[in-house]
Design goal:
The chain has 356 residues and is of the alpha/beta class. Helix content is 28%, strand content 16%.
């Protein structure tokens, strides 16, 4: 069963409201190749009532008011990829199709979707907890060069007005954040979860850890920018990595050390959750969601990459430690795929980062 996508479906489940609303810039595809599917299924497995708000119309309030104010908070992601990558080519030309939208229709999400969605939520719900995650939030967590603007932009945490960034593969930090919010802890005090970033006044900055050159300094100096990137990369290590700070005006971005990668048992559990493994049926009349085609009969075997190649973001997002699922877990998923009515006799691939 898919998660509820309308207020009527929430009522049909007998719920008097939802704990979390997950907002995504992609169409709703409940497949473990989609980060939104994994995070929402993990939250569901932990006992939380989760509604899925896919590709809301950011020019109006209606979609964001659909489920009312959630009891615990909003989770926000641009989708599987950065919204600017989804919209523009390397030549800065506007793409004509979006594979993560029904019927490849372009324009169903805004540029810089995380920022736009979060600002709309702040406008409508005030101080409701907002946690951002996924590639767009994770890779823009520090001051960063933006290719499309051709300038240095500050951390997405400040532009989005979110409370926390869950960076990297977010299952365990999501579980901890949800539990603490459920226990009545204010979001402002949840500042010690590994794999997260938060903002604080400069005078409240932890005295320990590594400090990157400030946003103002990296804007002025390419050398300072390079130093900042080196520190960020060096501390992207769950064993020896330290807390990182970066000043933005009178505020400080604080990144806690990375969350350790999932153990094999945890990975097996995550990939055993009850995914529908396809797009929501509401998209059928629009031609479905093309992005499912290459992954519907694929199996994720491992995460992480030791490579740290300059052209690739995997090491900065998933970490440089390779972790794998068990043979039994892979075989179980393969057998399950063969039982699907549209299975054509072959599994596309079994792999992940470093598997090429």
């Amino acid at each position: 069963m898919f998660l509820p996508i309308t207020a009527e479906e929430v009522k049909e489940r007998g719920w008097d409201g939802v704990d979390f609303v997950y907002v995504s810039g992609d169409a709703y595809v409940d497949h473990p190749s989609f980060g939104a599917a994994i995070i929402t299924r993990v939250m569901e497995a932990e006992g939380y009532r989760v509604a899925f708000l896919s590709q809301p119309d950011w020019r109006k309030n209606d979609d964001f008011l659909r489920f009312g104010r959630p009891k615990l908070g909003f989770m926000v992601s641009s989708g599987n990829i950065d919204s600017m990558v989804a919209h523009y080519t390397a030549a800065k030309k506007h793409r004509s199709q979006d594979a993560y939208s029904p019927g490849k229709v372009m324009g169903l999400r805004p540029d810089r979707a995380v920022i736009v969605y979060c600002n709309k939520i702040r406008e409508l719900y005030g101080d409701v907890p907002i946690i951002i995650g996924g590639l767009e939030a994770s890779l823009r967590r520090f001051a960063h060069y933006d290719y499309w603007d051709d300038k240095i932009r500050r951390s997405i945490l400040f532009d989005s007005q979110a409370d926390l960034i869950s960076y990297g593969m977010g299952e365990n930090q999501t579980i901890e954040i949800c539990r603490r919010l459920s226990n009545g802890e204010p979001i402002s005090s949840i500042t010690d979860v590994r794999g997260t970033c938060y903002a604080c006044d400069v005078r409240e900055t932890p005295l320990y850890g590594a400090e990157c050159p400030s946003f103002e300094n990296v804007c002025k100096s390419k050398k300072e920018y390079a130093v900042s990137c080196r520190i960020e990369q060096d501390e992207q290590d769950h064993i020896r990595g330290k807390l990182i700070k970066q000043r933005h005006g009178n505020k400080m971005l604080v990144q806690n050390p990375p969350m350790p990668p999932l153990t094999q048992e945890e990975m097996d559990w995550v990939y055993s959750l009850p995914y529908e493994r396809t797009y929501h049926p509401c998209y059928e009349k629009m031609g479905g969601v093309p992005a499912i085609e290459e992954v519907e009969f694929s199996i994720t075997h491992n995460r992480g990459c030791f490579g740290a190649c300059n052209f690739c973001s995997i090491a900065f997002h998933q970490g440089r430690f390779v972790t794998t699922r068990s043979k039994e877990s892979i075989i179980k998923e393969a057998k399950m795929l063969t039982e699907k009515p549209n299975f054509k006799g072959y599994i596309h691939d079994i792999g992940g980062p470093t598997a090429n």
